[in-house]
Amino acid sequence: MFSFQVFDHPMSRGFQNRFSTQYRCYSVSMLAGPNDRSDVEKGGKIIMPPSALDQLSRLNITYPMLFKLTNKNSDRMTHCGVLEFVADEGICYLPHWMMQNLLLEEGGLVQVESVNLMVATYSKFQPQSPDFLDITNPKAVLENALRNFACLTTGDVIAINYNEKIYELRVMETKPDKAVSIIECDMNVDFDAPLGYKEPERRPHHQEEPTEEEGDPSSYADMDTGFRAFTGSGNRLDGKTKGIEPSPAPLGPSDIKRGIPNYEFKVGRITFIRNSKPLPRRIIDDDDAMNRFIAFSGQGQSLRKKGRKP
After folding, report:
1. Same fold yes or no, 20-115 and 122-191
2. Residue 64, Cα to own-chain centre: how many angstroms?
3. Which of 94, 134, 205, 287 counts the highest number of beta carbons within 10 A?
4. Which CATH class is domain 20-115?
């Protein structure tokens, strides 16, 4: 009798553990059923037929299940996860933004292969519209939206829904690989300037401060003095002119005194300047006497003289 030994070649084992097949893809809006499946559009997972689950269960694949989608006609590829296995046989349903990245039309063929991806540590996104800057906390919004995604691919344009508005973001960079898994990972997120964004022009705020120059006092006479109170002339009821002072003479150039500017002025602070007058000599002497006063420093008087016996 002859015995044959079958060698388990590693290449054949790797080939058996790999899932690879073709499906006709449609958008989620074509999925038949009473339930609204708009939640599929908000993430990066697809719906596959039950036969795919049966075939995947027979293979020794790693979890979570991640797949590589390839459009051989346009040589475009992306990566995704799987949400459910409820599609019709030979059909898979993709989010609309994923079909746009693959340049697929309704009913187009897509190659689906199982892959293993490294866990993400860093990713950089570029919003495709300046409207993304209107969001108060964009990192928190993106973190909440990425919970519906399984992986990211460099070059993809993903779509997230926030406040009933769709924002598109291009994946500019991912580390440690061009395709990474974002399931249960600690990933640093960074943003690039939005597409079409222009920074506002900054005008210099250097204003030249006016220099105080000594001018000719005769030029002050040409200044508009404006309203001057109590400069008119009065009239008596009896018609007499007694006690009425004549109108004041116009001011001459020497009568106008230029004020002293406050060089310590600061915006937002009001300073009241008082004209200090010298105090009288008597008040100064009284202040000196008060300063020299020492309490309980006087001598007391006794009613009974010392040394006299009763």
Report:
1. no
2. 35
3. 94
4. mainly beta
Nearest Cα residue to 217 out of 260, 249, 252, 248: 252
User: Residue 167: which residues within 8 A CB-CB, separation 6 or more?
Assistant: 127, 128, 129, 131, 132, 135, 159, 160, 161
pLDDT in tens, the chain (310 residues): 333 343 344 444 444 568 899 999 998 888 766 566 777 888 899 999 999 999 998 888 888 899 999 999 988 999 999 999 989 899 999 998 999 999 999 999 999 999 999 999 999 999 998 898 888 899 999 999 999 999 999 999 999 888 888 999 999 999 999 999 999 889 999 999 888 888 777 777 655 555 555 555 555 555 555 666 777 777 778 777 766 555 666 666 666 666 677 777 788 887 776 665 665 666 666 666 667 767 777 777 777 766 555 5
Domain ranges for the chain, please list them: 20-115, 122-191
